Amino acid sequence: MKCHATASVKHTLEPLLPLKKLCPACVLLCVIFLMNLEALAQDAVPGVETGAPAAERPRFELEEVVVTGTRIEDPVRDIARNVTVITAEDIEQAPSDSIVDLLAREAGVNPRSFFGHDKSAGVDIRGMGDTFVSNVLVMVDGYRLNPPDLAGPDFCSIPLDRIERIEILRGAGSVIYGDGAVGGVVNIITKKRQAEPEARISSSYGSHDAFEGRASYSGRVDRLSFGLHTGYASTDGYRDNGSLRKVDAGARLGYDLLDTLVLEADVAYHDDSYGLPGPVAAEDVDEEGRRRTTAYPLDTGETQDRRIRIGLEWDLESWGLLQAHQGFRFRDNRYIMGFNPLLAPGEQRDHIDEDTRLFDLDWVKNLELFDLEHRLQVGLDHFHTDYVRTEQSRHQRENSEVESLGAFAMVRVALAEPFSLNLGARKHRTEGTFRTDQHVNFSGTRWWVNGETFTRDWTETAWDVGLVWDVTPEHTLFASLASTFRTPNVDELALGDDDLHPQKGVHVEIGSRHALGDLAELSVTLFQIEIDDEIYYDAVGFGTNRNYDDTTLRRGVETELKLYIHESFYVWGNWTWMKAEFEERGTRVPLVPETKASVGFEWRALPPIVVAVTGTRVGSRYQGNDLDNLAYPKLESYRMIDGKMTYERSGWKVFGGVNNLTDEAYSAVAYSDTYYPAPARTVYGGLEWTF
Question: Domain 4-690 sits in which CATH superfamily?
Fold first, then answer.
C-alpha cells in the first residue's frame, strides 16, 4: 500500500502535476484573460462602471456572506475555496421542482436519482462516485443530515419553499466539519425571522398525478420571532411502484433575551411512504413502455424523521462571539425489498431505528495587531448515535453505538492589506461498539441470540492552509492545501474487512473570482484530490466493504459565468472537466462523468412575468461496479432542458413549467447492466398567495 505521507509531499510540491494534460498555454491565457477582463469589457460595453458598489451587483457572489466555509458569517471573497450561493430568488425562478435538480445545475455537482424524485436521491461533488452519500456532507441550518449508515441525506424531508439559500462549498471541509466532508459541503439554510407577519398558501399539480399543497405563517412580536409551516405532497411516480407520499411540519422560535443574546429553537417532522421499483434490464431501458415497468411491484418503504435543534448566539462584545447548538434526531425507517408472497409482510419488513444527538460550540474573537485585523476561531463538536437495523429477511440484527468528539482551531492572519492567510487544524476521535445478533430457529420458534461485540477506536487529524489575495476590489485569487478523512459508517463496519479503516485525503485548489461592475462575474478553479485507502464496497470480489489498495486521484477544472446583458435578461453558465481515476491502474472511478456543462437564462419579459430556461449536458461514465472499465457498456451522455414561466402580482403568483422538454430517455445510475431510468417529459403548474 502506498505511503500516504510520501504521496502528500509529492503532491504538495507539484500540486498541478495531474493537470498536465491541459494545454499550458490555455491555462496561461485564462489567467491573462481574467486579469484583463475589465479592460476588455470597458472597450466592448461603453458606459459600464466597473467600480460599482458591490451592493448594487445583482446576484453576484464575490460579496455574498456565507456561513459554510467557517460555520460563522464570512464573505465569499475571504474563503479559499470554490463556493456557490443559490439564493431565494434563484430558487423561486429556477425551473426545478426538487432540491436535487436545483443543485444539479451547478459546476462540479452531479445528480444521482434512482426513482425520479428526491427520495433515494443525492448529489455527488467532485467525483466521489458510488460513495458520495458518505463523502459529501449535507447540513440543514448547521445540522448534519447524513445518517450514520449508507442511506444518504434525505432531501425529500426538506420542503423547497422553506429554503432561504443553499451554500455549496466544494472540496475539503474536515477541519471545520469533521468526518465525511471530503467532496464538499451543502448547507441548506431555511427561512428564519420575518419582521412583518406573513402568510403563504400554495398548491401545484403535474404529471403522474403529482400534487403538493403547503401553508406557512411567520412574524415577530416584540422580542419573539416565530415561523410555522406544513405541507403534503404525493405522486404516482414515473415508473410502476414509483409512488411517493409525504407530510411535513415544522416550527421555529427565536427570542432576543438581551440585545446581545438570542435564543433559537427549531422542530421538524417528516413522514413518508414510497415504492421501490428497483432497476430494469438493459434490453428494456431504451423502450418507453418497458422502462417504466418494475420487477418489484410490492417493495415499499416508510420513514418517520423528527429533528429538534436549540441554540444560542451571544455577542460578548470585546470578548468575542459565542455560538452553541444542541440537536436531536429520531429516525424510524421500515421497508421491504425482495417481497416474498409466501411470507407475511411482517415477517420480511426490515427496520432501522436511529437516535442521534449532536452538539457544537464556536467561539470567535477578532484581534488587532500591527494595525491589521486578525481572527481566532475555536470550536468543538460531539456526535452520539444509537443505531439498530433489524433484517427479517436475513434473520439478523445489527446493533451499533458510535460516538465522536472533535476540536478545531482556525486563525485568519492579515499578512498585508491585500493578503490573508487561513490556518486550521482539527483533532477528531471516533469510538464505536458493534454487534450482530442472529434470529435463530429453536424447534420452530425463533429467538434472538446476541453476537460477539467488537469495538473500533480511531483518532484522526486534519489541517488546512488557505491564502486569499484581493488583487483589486473586483478581482480575488485564492489557493489552498488541506487534508480530509472519513471513518467507516455502521453499514460498512457491519459487512467489512477486519482491517477496514479510515480513508485519508490531500486536496490542492487554486482559483480566481472576478466581477466586472454590475455586468458580469467569472470564476475559474483548478483542483486535485488524492485519497489513500478510500472505502468502497467490493461487490465483485469479496462482497464486503474494503479499502482500495490503489490511490484514487481526482483532478479537474470548474468554470462559472454570470452575465447581465440587460436589466431584464440574466444569463449564466458553467463547465466542469473532471478526471477521476485509480493512480496505478489508470482506470476511471465509476459513475463519474468527465465533463458536465449547464447554461440558462432568466428573462423578465414584462414586469410581472419571468421566463427561465436551463439546459444541462452530462458526459458518459462507467457503471457503478465496473472498476476495470471493461465489464459493462458505459452509461451514455444525456442532455436536459427545463423551462418555467412565472406571473406574480399583488401577492399572487401563478407558475407553470416543463422538465425534460426534449423527452430524453436516460439513466444516471446503473449497476451490472441494470438501469434506473429517469423520468421522461413532465409538466406542472401551480398557484401561490402571500398575504
Answer: TonB-dependent receptor, beta-barrel domain (2.40.170.20)
Higher-confidence residue of 74 and 42: namely 74
Q: CA-CA distance, 142 to 359, in Å (whole number)?
A: 11
Beta pairing partners, 560: 523, 574
Give 13 or 234, the one with higher predicted confidence: 234
Residues 189 and 167 sit within 8 Å (Cβ to Cβ): yes
Q: What percent of the chain has pLDDT over 70?
A: 91
* Residue matched to cell numbers 482556525: 410
For the entire predicted model, the pTM comes to 0.89
Per-residue burial over 167-183, b = 16 or more CB atoms within 10 Å of its CB, e = otherwise: bbbbbbbbbbbbbbbbb
C-alpha cell belonging to residue 408: 478545531
> Per-residue pLDDT tens for 639-650?
999 999 999 999
Q: What whole-number distance in Å separates Cα of residue 33 and Cα of residue 340?
A: 63
> What residue ranges in 10-162 does DSSP mark as E strands?
65-66, 74-75, 83-87, 109-113, 121-125, 136-140, 143-144
Quick one: average pLDDT of 628-645?
Answer: 96
Strand order in the sheet with 674-677: 280-281, 674-677, 667-671
* Sign of the alpha-carbon torsion through 63, 67, 72, 77: negative
Q: Would the pLDDT of 69 be above 90?
A: no
Rounded Cα gap, residues 236 and 99, in angstroms: 19
Return phi, psi of residue 18, to 5°: -65, -10
